[in-house]
Structure formats: structure tokens, C-alpha cells
Amino acid sequence: LHLLAFTGRWRPGGDSAAFLVLGRRLHEHGDLVTMTGYGDGVMPGYPWLLSQLIAITGSEESAITAAIGLNLAATLAWLTFVFLAVRAVVDRPTAVWVTLLCGVSARAMEAGADVLPGMVFAALLAAVLWAEAWRVGWWRWAIVAVLLVVMVALRSVTALVVGAAWLAWGIGMVRARVEQPPGDRSLASTAQRSVWAGLFVVFAFLFFVPGVRRDLEVLFTGLLSDGPGRVLGATREALVWAVPEGVIGIDPSVYVGPVLGVLFIGAGVALTRVRLFWGVLVLAFVLPWFLFLSTPRYVVPVLPLLLLGVWRLLVLMERRWPGARSGWAVLAAAGLLLAANGVGVGRLIVEQRGEPFLERYRDGKYAAAMEVSHWLRDNSLPGSRVLVTLDERPSVSWWSRRDALPLISTPAMNAGVLYAVEPLDKAARAAMTELGWSLGPALFEADDPRRGDTWTLHEVMRPTPSAEPTVGE
């Protein structure tokens, strides 16, 4: 199934295009400083990897194909480590079921087809779960440390993994202290050292990892500005859409989604009874979704744990109410989970194999963006910039090789030839009016079938500055 979905075609998207722009920038200029701001707080590991693929393959198109092929290999590694980890902690039959459910996951397959670090990160996290559960030798912690170093270069959420490990360690020490015989103080000093070591690691992440600092700033800024409204909206989005679709592979109804979301999260957190670190890790990943933002692809790293929790819940039901009916109910639930993901997998394969691809991919969302971008690339001077206030801004930057900006906000952005793509939002229009700018004649048009409107490219007409110096000057 994964080979059927593998075509080497780039699935355009905002985050994916931003990583590609950064990879190109790193390959051509050796830094991640872009006027578009994509490089602010981004972990450098994946842009560096893309820049190396561009250098090795010799073309950006081949680098995209190689990156998707790498994700396919990461998917195989992910499934392997999921099987090994679950087998080490639970048993082999359960590991087979969980690996099967992960293998046919529509969201996992989609993550493997994207040019994003998500699947590589998921494979590394699965390797951490396996190494942490490995009972052979103390040097498993050395393996975990190396894996975490690679993971933090890819995604800032590695801080959640470290925090979960520290919290699970602390809870384990408290449990051991409670069960310790009276008068024995050996565990007390060990627990104290563990707490200080954990605090040191947490503060090291906060001060030395820019991506973690940026994510915390965005989180607290949003909470302070929106307050309870932000939390309620994020919680609804996570429970109704992100978590259920991340597990079953298709968008559930607004009535069924919250029930499934609570069920899946509760089953994952309940893994504390099986492996303390696993249940705490699920909780650590879920809490930011309730506070800030979530999408189905954010579920993929902890998907094996959620599926393991669901499978244990089904087995528990079968044991609690023994009989033929409960056994059939368990099989029916597992069959529905497979069938729902099968629908999502089928859609993905049809979408990947469809021709023409960009007209079928997401109902043609990016077709107009590519046409406008190619016109800019072929007809505008290098260094030109374009105002784009739609979600396709990073894709326009990638295809056109021009900086696509949401708004002119600095004098440096005002330099050179400036274009604008309509429709523009109110903020961009208000800023242009305040600056005395206007749109020139239409240079190029492209139909957008998804929105039912037309992308129109204009040159921005700016007043010629006066030769006489102003008071400010």
C-alpha cells in the first residue's frame, strides 16, 4: 500500500513549502535568514537534510523525490520499532495487531508521502520507546540520548519527550520512596539528584533550543491575548477533529468525533498501567493540543501508543464480558478501524496517482498558485517580491523563487520590483492605502476552481520619492 502511494510527487502545503524554501536557502547561501520569516525558530535539522539532498541529486525535483523516498524508509523503520517496543513491553500478538493498525493508518501514510520531518521524527521516537523498554544493558540510555539529540534537531517537541521521561522518572522514584522500608534514606538522595538533573535538562532546552523558546512564546502570547477562548477553541479542534481523524484516518462527524477523541486519549493515558513513561508521554503530547493547535498529522508520533491503548481497551471489554458476542464486538471494532483507514488510504492512492495531479490534489487548491508562480519566475527580475495573503504564500515562494510576503513591514521589503496577487486581505489593502500605493494593470490571471474566483497578478505602483529631504531625513 505504501509503495502504491509512493510517486515522488510533492504534495504542496504551507509547512512543506517553507521547509523547501529554507533548504534551498541553506544550499545556495549557507544560512536560514529569509525575508519571509520562515526561518524564525525553525529547527535546522530538516532544512539541512534537504539542502544536502539538493547538493547530492543536483536538482530540486530529484531532491523532493529523494526526501519522499527517505520518508518511505522511515515509515518502514517506524513500523519495525513499534513492533519491537510493543513486543518487549506487552506480547507478540498485541505487537502484530498494533503494527498492522499503524501500517494501514491513512494519516501515517500521508505523513510518509509529505516533505516534512514528521515521519522521521516518529521513527526516532519509536526507537526511543524500544530502547527505553529494552532490558539488556545500561547503555540503552546512551542510545536514547543519541536519538534525542537527533530528534531535537528536527522538531522542538522533543522537549515534550524529555519532560515526559523526567516526570515518569520522578513518579517512579516517589513510588519507590513510598514503598521503601522505614529508616532507609538511600532513595531520598537519588530522588533529589534526579530532580535537579531533570530541572537542568529542562532549562537547557529553554535557553539553548530556539525552537522551544519560540513555541513557548507563541503559546503564552496566544493564551494571554485570547484567554479561555483560545483554550476552548483548541480543545474543540483536538477532540472533534484532530485526534479522531489522526486515529481513524477520515474526518468523523461533529457528534461522534468528541466521543472518539476522549476515548482515544483516555486509552492512551491509561498506558501508565503498562509502562509509566508511555502513558505520561501521551499526556505530554496531548496537553499542548488543548492549549494551542492540533492537526491530524501531529497525532502520528504517538499513534502507536493510542492504538495500543484502544486495543487493550477492546481486550479488557472482551475479558470483562466473556462470550461469543463480546468477541465479535472486538473484531467488529477492529474491522471498523481498519475499514475507516482503508477509505483514507484509498483516497490518498487515487489522489497520488491522479492526472493532472495538481488539479486533483485537494480539489485543485494549488493549481492557480503554481501558474502565477511560474509566470513570476519566468517574467520578473531576480529579487522581485510579491504580496500574497493566502495560505499558498510559502508555495508561491518555492515555485517562483521570489520572496512571497504577507505585508510590507520593513524598508528592506520595499526595495526592488513589487507585485501583488489578488484577492488581498483587508490588512494588506489598508497598508497599501496608507502608503499611497495602488495596483497597476493585470499582468496575469489564473482560475482557482476550488474557491471559484481568479488569481490576478499586478505590479504595485508606488509614488516616486521626492528629491527634497524631509524633516525626518
Can you walk through the features of this model?
The chain is of the alpha/beta class. It is built from 20 helices and five strands. It has helices at 2-5, 14-29, 45-57, 60-89, 92-103, 106-113, 118-133, 140-154, 158-179, 186-208, 210-226, 228-248, 256-269, 276-291, 303-320, 324-353, 357-360, 367-379, 393-400, 426-435; strands spanning 385-387, 403-405, 418-422, 438-448, 453-461. Strands 2-1-3-5-4 form a five-stranded mixed β-sheet. Strand 4 (438-448) and strand 5 form a beta hairpin. Helix 15 runs antiparallel to helix 16. The longest helix has 30 residues, at 60-89. The chain starts with a helix and ends in a 12-residue tail after the last strand.
Short structural description:
With 473 residues, this protein is of the alpha/beta class. The protein is built from 20 helices and 5 strands. A hairpin with a 4-residue loop joins strand 4 and strand 5.
